[in-house]
């Protein structure tokens, strides 16, 4: 196979709880992850010259070893001493540094693609074992769908597929440091936590409104006071009829869940009018396990 085109799908956190800070500095988390229909387009092409070349539609993204897609390709090419080189073209649509695992999704797609193009015959589990060396979200981005993530996010348990609905995504024009958020998170009794077990139970029963009532993200306690625009976007989504609206990951992206398409489109138009978010997308839940 000479070249391959792939889609790297974004994720949101339906529930994000932080249990404790570990001695190694990492945080123990418990999260319900969900793939959504927003994706980056990736082209992989074999080239004769050794090395890895990356081209992207965003000028500020690194085209070298600082890019996760580059690291993913290099990991497999070095391990299996693959001949020649690889050209990677990234057409980014997933908001960057926004709590949607865009970089991890790209890396996961590259691992999958290189495995297929070079007939390495690695299983999904073997790809996930390699992916975690590059980032905690990469194994999930290989698995995709609805899943419980524990540990630092690398211990994954597939869950019954989330009921279908419309997902409104809005990223305000601010940059949030994940390190800042976790360093300032206070794990005390006043922290409002999502009910992860009840969320999982409701999803398993296919009860989307009930599941929405148990959703939540403890990192909002840090990010929203620092960036009030997140609260304004959440409020706008809820006012337009979202079952729930919350921040994904450490932010600043906000997503809202809508049962009806007309309602979701109306909310989409409202957010565009507000001009609080520079990137606004209307998509849906993505639960297909196989890759295109």
Walk me through this protein's architecture:
Helix 1 packs parallel to helix 2 (102-117) and helix 2 packs across helix 3. The two termini are 15 Å apart. This protein has helices spanning 68-79, 102-117, 124-131, 138-143, 178-183, 196-204, 208-213, 220-226, 229-239, 261-274; strands spanning 3-21, 27-47, 51-56, 85-91, 146-151, 155-158, 166-171, 216-217, 244-247, 254-258, 279-284. The chain is globular. It folds into 2 domains: 3-158, Ribosomal Protein S5, domain 2, CATH 3.30.230; 166-284, Alpha-Beta Plaits. With 292 residues, the protein is an alpha+beta fold.
Individual helix count = 10
Ranges where pLDDT stays below 50 over 5 or more residues in a row are none
Structural shape: globular
Briefly, what CATH class of the largest domain?
Answer: Alpha Beta
Tell how many strands the DSSP assignment holds: 11
User: What is the average of the pLDDT values?
Assistant: 94
CATH architecture field of the largest domain = 2-Layer Sandwich
Q: How widely separated are the two ends? A: 15 Å
Backbone structural class: alpha+beta
Oligomeric grouping of the chains: single chain
Looking at the structure, the CATH topology of the largest domain is: Ribosomal Protein S5, domain 2
In short:
The protein is an alpha+beta fold and 292 residues long. It has helices at 68-79, 102-117, 124-131, 138-143, 178-183, 196-204, 208-213, 220-226, 229-239, 261-274; strands spanning 3-21, 27-47, 51-56, 85-91, 146-151, 155-158, 166-171, 216-217, 244-247, 254-258, 279-284.
